[in-house]
Amino acid sequence: MSGGVDSAVAAARAVEAGHDVVGVHLALSRMPGTLRTGSRGCCTIEDSRDAWRACDVLGIPYYVWDFSERFKEDVVQDFIDEYAAGRTPNPCMRCNERIKFAALLEKAIALGFDAVCTGHYAKVIEDADGNRELHRAADWAKDQSYVLGVLTHEQLKHSMFPLADTPSKAEVRAEAERRGLSVANKPDSHDICFIPDGDTAGWLAEKIEMTTGDIVDETGAKVGEHPGANAFTVGQRRGLKLGTPAADGKPRFVLEIRPKENKVVVGPGALLAIDEIRGIKVSWAGLPITEVETGAEFDCYAQVRAHGDPVPATARMEPATDGTGASRLVVRLVSPLRGVAPGQTVVLYQGSRVLGQATIDTARSLQRAAL
Amino acid sequence: MPAYLDHAATTPLSGAALAALTRELARTGNPSSLHGSGRRARRAVEDAREVIAAAAGAHPSEVIFTSGGTESDNLAVKGMYWSRVAEDPKRRRILCSAVEHHAVLDTVEWLERHEGAEVAWLPVDSQGVLDLAVLEAELSRDPGSVALVTVMWANNEVGTIQPVRRVVELAHAAGVPVHSDAVQAFGSVPVHFKDSGLDAMSISGHKIGGPVGVGALLLGRSVKLTPVQHGGGQERDVRSGTLDTASIAAFAAAAEAVAATLPAEAARIAALRERLIEGVRERVPLAVLRGAPGGGRLPGNAHFTFPGCEGDSLLFLLDLAGIESSTGSACTAGVPRPSHVLLAMGLDEETARGAQRFSLGHASTEDDVDALLAALPEAYARARQAGMAGHESSIQTAGTAARQASRGT
Question: In what residue span(s) does the Aminotransferase class V domain sit (chain B) (predicted)?
């Protein structure tokens, strides 16, 4: 329980459904801040107290579990390493994969619990054989199935999302109010919890050694200099400070980051349109569909950001060619997507069902490849 | 009914205290008022003062009522420090044991940060007993620079009783006053303020069957103290604020009851405690008793570290089984931190995380101990399993799936 309204209502519903529920607040930092500032916050004393208060009202025990070491290694360090390697990671996804539905779940199971219940907006469906599928929440605007796309079948078997069928967030707030939960009107948290002021670039600049280098255009010609390639994100337009204007006078965007050469490649927006994605670290949210085993191509929708729109695509598994034994996921986007960066996660859907996900290794623009 | 094994945190209100509390709550009167109602309230407060003085081996005028142990500790440590510095600015050193309750520890640290105090943390041995040689050395280094010595009577986590008499002898020989936090000791073992020679001593109501929110500082008549809280000049002008007649009367009723039965109750509770310790050792041979053996610890205290598990996991599982215990230390955000007491006793962080304190008191029975012993083996096994949850998750995740695939399994 984060101390927010969603997890409080999720806990309330789980209690009402007759489960034995214990509230757990994750301590993700050894030095929790004193008080929340504005709407942001994670692991502050006030968030902890809010979660505790919700448990008091629900009449359930409350514990703080310290996963700060694991969090630092598996999420924060991973975030830094990925940026240092020129990729754009999703730390919430890593946290779901490795902390909430792994480290925490494992401890919970050892203590005799059956499942981790969270306030995520997503739905788990079980078929007659007890196999589970992950689906989008009823409210697509609030749907969080993307950040849960990384869950495996085993993790889904121990997951509960009581907010699945809630028509809207307003409904959740109203329910919290009705139940006497003081967090009913608490603002939503956003941004990355371990970067409380929201200044990701500034935060990274303190952790990653930045070296000035060249900004080049799509032809390889130098058009400017940057203070450190790792501070840039694919699709970024602002803050490039290019001395030489583009020949056509149109704005230029970051197309690619080359950490080894410490170069940032910029070019016209049209070259940001990605037609093909190759993904590694593939996982399936539940049992994989037949085509995954046969290697056949299948129709699906691909989504590359938590709140991005899904686009039609075809996908297939490609056997390993590099001797590692790890298969890759090849996704062809029927309508190209802008601003796809290596390190991001592509989640595949069929209808409301989440099929699985992969970490984007390469993102290819046909137009750029033809240059 | 759960088995309540957390008397060191707070105790159930005794019958006598409840009767006094409800009787006085129904009455009106400020003890400082001169009219009839005020006189009646004053009478109740002064009766209570005499009772508590008698129970603690002090003169009634040495009893300063406060809101509890924390306030008494703050008042004693800050008040003595300030008055000693005011008399002689050279006196900036505070000699403080490393195992104090946070009410003393944090007060001393605050004086260090904000008031120019220099702190010498006095070490303890593996049983938590103060190293008198270090105290002696610190005192003799430059006696004129020491503002005060503060050493608790008995530790709240591991129950170790400190050699308070020797501390006082050494300090007084050097002309230095001594404060002791006797919150855990008072009512549990014989505590005699006058005989101890202490200059100031903190006690609390709710640890002895009285209500929460009332305590006292026993303060020698010749000891000068700079007040922390200013106002109406109550309590020798040392602690202003309208006196809480009902709580004070209830505190006295509890103290009287405890004093009347102390030797017998202490023996009864110590016997229960031994039964608990033996039982735990029998059922969980890996458990290690912390603190001093036998008479070296508070009769009601049993403190163990359970290897391989986290204290709060064990606490949770015992709670589930109807046993109420404690890890021995708490933190504002609820984040479990290894105890500074155990670390001072030389334990490593890993071992210290497995701490569990069972504390018995006036309400404890054999059934409580038996309930713990019945629930403990399974709770320990489970907590250990949860604690073993190593770094590589046994849950299949996207990461483990990818690694397995690349290994060709």
Answer: 4-372
- Interface probe for A, chosen from B323, B324, B335, B350 (most Cβ of A below 10 Å), is B335
Q: What is the pLDDT of residue B302?
A: 98
Task: Chain B: give the shortest CA distance to residue A151, in Å.
Answer: 7
CA dist B167 and B158 (Å) reads 20
Sequence-ordered alpha helix ranges (H) in A254-357: 290-294
SS3 A203: helix
Nearest to B332 among A45, A324, A325 (CB): A45
Domain A5-119+162-178, CATH homologous superfamily name and number:
HUPs (3.40.50.620)
User: Which pLDDT score is estimated for A185?
Assistant: 86
Q: Per DSSP, which regions of A74-188 are E strands?
A: 116-117, 122-126, 132-136, 159-160
Contact B316 A63 (CB under 8 A): yes
pLDDT in tens, A249-299: 788 899 999 888 899 999 998 899 999 999 999 999 999 999 998 999 999
Place of tokens 């129709």: A299
Catalytic residues of A: 95, 193
**Banded model confidence at residue B395, pLDDT cuts 50, 70, 90:** confident
| ipTM score | 0.82
Per-domain residue ranges for chain A?
5-119+162-178, 209-267
Residues of chain B in contact with residue A41, where contact means CB-CB under 8 angstroms, are none
Residue in chain A nearest B334 by alpha carbon: A64
Give the CATH number of domain A209-267; options: 1.25.10.10, 1.20.1250.20, 1.10.760.10, 2.30.30.280. 2.30.30.280
Closest by Cβ to A154, choosing from B316, B333, B395: B395
Query: What does the alpha-carbon distance between residue B307 and residue B360 come to, in Å, rounded to a whole number?
Result: 23
Q: How confident is the model at residue B392 (pLDDT cuts 50, 70, 90)?
A: low
- What Cα–Cα distance (Å) separates residue B231 from each residue in B74, B224, B235, B237, B244? 17, 18, 11, 8, 15
Mean pLDDT for chain B overall: 94
A281–B395: do the CB atoms touch at under 8 Å?
no
β partners of residue B358 = B302
Task: For the full predicted model, state whether its pTM sits above 0.80.
Answer: yes
The answer to whether the Cβ–Cβ distance between A98 and B389 falls below 8 Å is: no
Tell me the per-residue pLDDT of A173-191, one tens digit each, with 9 for 90 and over: 999 999 999 888 888 876 7
